[in-house]
Structure formats: C-alpha cells, structure tokens
Specification:
Shape: globular
Distance between the termini: 63 Å
Number of domains: 2
Order of helices and strands: HEEEEEEEEEEEEEEEEEEEEEEEE
Mean pLDDT: 91
Radius of gyration: 25 Å
Largest sheet: 4 strands, antiparallel
C-alpha cells in the first residue's frame, strides 16, 4: 500500500515537471516571437548626434541623397534664447535660418553647417528637400514676420498673428542645379482657393507645408499643402494637393486631400505606390495625435475619404525600400517620448496590422521628432530627426537601421 502511494506521488511530481517544462517552453517561445514581432525586419545599429551647439536651437530636418557618394541634410537653426537670459525657446524666431550639412556615409558629417538660406522678411521654418530625377533640388519652407504693434490693426483679416506679434508669411521655395552649392529663389507658390487667410504683407497667403513632396513616375510633382478654411476656427487646417508639370516652376490646385469639421490635417508627406496610388500620410490636430492616411487612385484628381491608421505618431515620412516595401517613420510625443517606425507593403494597405518598431524612447519631452529617412546602401537606412535628452538643448540626431 505504501509502495503504491509512493509511485502515485512520484508520477504526480513527474507530471508537474512536464507541465512546468511545457509552460516554460511556451513562455520562452512567446518571448522569442514577441521579440521577432518587435523587430519586424528592422534592426537598429546605433544612434548618434549629427549637430549640436549650445548656442543654437536646431530642429525640423530633412535629408536626400545627392549621388552615390554624398548625402545632403537641411534643418532649421535659431539662437538658443537662453544665452540672452530669456526663459526658453520657441518654434518661431526672427533669426531662424535654413542650414545644411553633407556626409559621404550618413554617419560622419562636416562639423559646422553651412547657410542654405536666410529669408529677407522673417524667420524660416522646416526646410523640406526633394531631389528630382534630373538632379535638380527643391527646398520648400515657410516663414514668420516679427511685427511692431502699430501694424497689428492694419493686417487684413483673417490672418495668423501670434500673441507676441509674430505674423505668418506663408510658404516659399528654393531650387538648386549644383547639388546645393548655390540656391535660386525664393519663389512663391500660389494661394489656393480654400485658404482664406492673408499674410503679413496683406497678400493672399502663399501655399505652405511641412512634409515630403514627391516626383511621380510621369515626371509631375505632387505637393500636399495646408489651408485654413474657416475664419471662425483658425486652427481648423485641411490638406490639399498642388501639382506641377514643369518641375516646380508653376503649380496648379488639384483637389482636397483631407478635410473635417473638427479634425485638423497638416504636415503631410506623399508617396506613390508601384500601382500608381498616390498616398498621403497626415498629421492631425484635435485627434489625440492619431496618424491618418488618404489615397488617390486617379493620379491626384481626387482622394478617397481619409482613414485613421490606428496608432499615434506625427508627422510621418515614407521611404520606399528596394524590395518595394515602405518604411514609415514618425515622432512619438507621448511617454516614453521618441522616434518609431513601421514597414508597410508596397501599397500601404497593411498599416493597421503592421508592427511598430521603437527606434528611440529616451526623449526628454514631446518637443522632438519630425523624422526623415534616406537609404545609405542596400540594407541600411539613415533616419534623421530633432531630439532632446532630459529636456536639454534641441539638436539634430540620427539613427542607422538595418532592414532585412
């Protein structure tokens, strides 16, 4: 009788060991699968600082490949107002200029940036680069004028006048035919009919945007621009499409990309799929930071209704990969603050099921992001963005990713 009890007890222990082993194996496999899912074919090689100077506040970069041996980076730089004993920095500044740097490998950069452009009438923002197939460079930007109080009441209404007397000038762009050694312009895009505001000079506001313009397969340029469409709600911004058939010399209004009576859409980047779909990645306002997408299937004549992508992030940038998948990168302005990415299929239809990859989560506050990506070689990508650690000085940083 004792022997039988002993055998049963031993069998019970063996069963426990087997169950424990199975559960442990399942846990290890689940952890492995989770790590594999997290990677999603992306591996981060390293993070590094591209440009940081205690005298300057640097932000809002873009980057393009000039040729096989050179990469061009542009960003906005303004004085660090704390050197003047001011309380802090803002995203508008009278001495905000467009700067540029070059690199041969995406990791080693010249130590000091060069001046790309100092706008004559105000402080500039967000230089957005595009290199055309023929080598021509286009850099879009927009600017703010700093006005004396005597001018406030003389501004045509509606306009965008900040509480410190800073008035919105609208957009402009520059061009270069020698890889950025010299720049022509500024040139001014047209005012679009949906835009109801006037600029600081009492002229209809020129079109503007922060985001990637693209050159389509047919040679046309597609540019998503923003517009305020309701004088009673000046923050209600919508996104619209401009098209150029002569490499940016002239622009024509095409159609709305995304509008809503409560949600704002701005800072939009574009991508053209292998099947010819024109896809807009939209930053939103009044929508808890949710990323949105809109799609045109008729060459930019119209867009289907915008859709929520199912994750937080703004603004977004889309980079086509060699295998026709698309890397999207975006800032993440909730804790933990940082930079994130996803890989989508070539038509960008799997955004809801795509897995998020965390590039960085060590940001000091939400004042960071605006990533822009470029291929270094067949499987390595450079992602540039502006960043801060422990709420310190804003600077231009980069991450190298490997794509499987």
């Amino acid at each position: 009788m004792v022997k039988v009890k002993y055998i049963k007890k031993r069998q019970w222990r063996l069963n426990l060991i087997v169950v424990y082993f199975l559960l442990s194996s399942a846990g290890i496999q689940a952890q492995f699968n989770a790590e594999t899912d997290q990677n999603n074919g992306i591996k981060k090689v390293r993070d590094f600082v591209i440009y940081k100077d205690s005298a300057f506040y640097a932000a809002f970069p873009s980057v393009v490949r000039l040729n096989e041996s050179e990469i061009l980076l542009a960003f906005r730089r303004a004085p660090n107002r704390k050197i003047f004993n001011e309380h802090g920095n803002r995203h508008v500044d009278a001495n905000s200029y467009l700067m540029m740097m070059k690199s041969g490998d995406g990791e080693n950069w010249n130590e000091e940036p060069e001046l790309l452009h100092a706008y004559s009438f105000g402080g500039s923002q967000d230089p957005c680069l595009l290199r055309l197939k023929n080598g021509k460079l286009i850099c879009t930007s927009y600017a703010w004028a700093f006005l004396r109080s005597s001018a406030y009441d003389k501004l045509k209404k509606p306009n965008l006048l900040l509480d410190n007397g800073v008035s919105f000038l609208g957009g402009y762009y520059l061009t270069s035919d020698d890889n950025g050694s010299s720049w022509d312009g500024p040139f001014y895009p047209p005012n679009i009919a949906p835009e109801i505001r006037f600029n600081s000079m009492n002229q209809p506001l020129p079109a503007y945007n922060r985001g990637a313009m693209i050159e389509g397969k047919d040679g046309r340029l597609f540019w998503a621009v923003a517009a305020a469409i309701d004088s009673t709600q000046p923050g209600l911004i919508s996104a619209h499409l401009l098209i150029s058939e002569d490499q940016g010399v002239n622009w024509k209004y095409s159609c709305p990309i995304a509008t809503d009576q409560e949600i704002a859409f701005n800072e939009t980047s574009l991508y053209e799929s292998p099947d010819g779909a024109l896809i807009a990645f939209l930053r939103t306002g009044n929508f808890d930071g949710q990323a949105c997408i809109a799609r045109s299937l008729d060459g930019g004549k119209s867009f289907e209704p915008w859709k929520k992508m199912g994750f937080e992030g703004y603004p977004l940038h889309a980079l086509p990969l060699d295998d026709q998948r698309v890397l999207i990168t975006y800032g993440y302005r909730s804790e933990p603050y940082g930079i994130r990415a996803r890989i989508l299929n070539s038509e960008c239809t799997d955004y809801k099921s795509s897995r998020e990859f965390v590039i960085r989560k060590d940001g000091g506050s939400g004042d960071l992001g605006y990533p822009w990506s470029v291929a270094i070689d067949e499987n390595r990508i450079l992602v540039v963005y502006y960043f801060n650690v422990d709420q310190g000085l804003r600077h231009i940083a980069g991450s190298i990713l490997e794509i499987e």
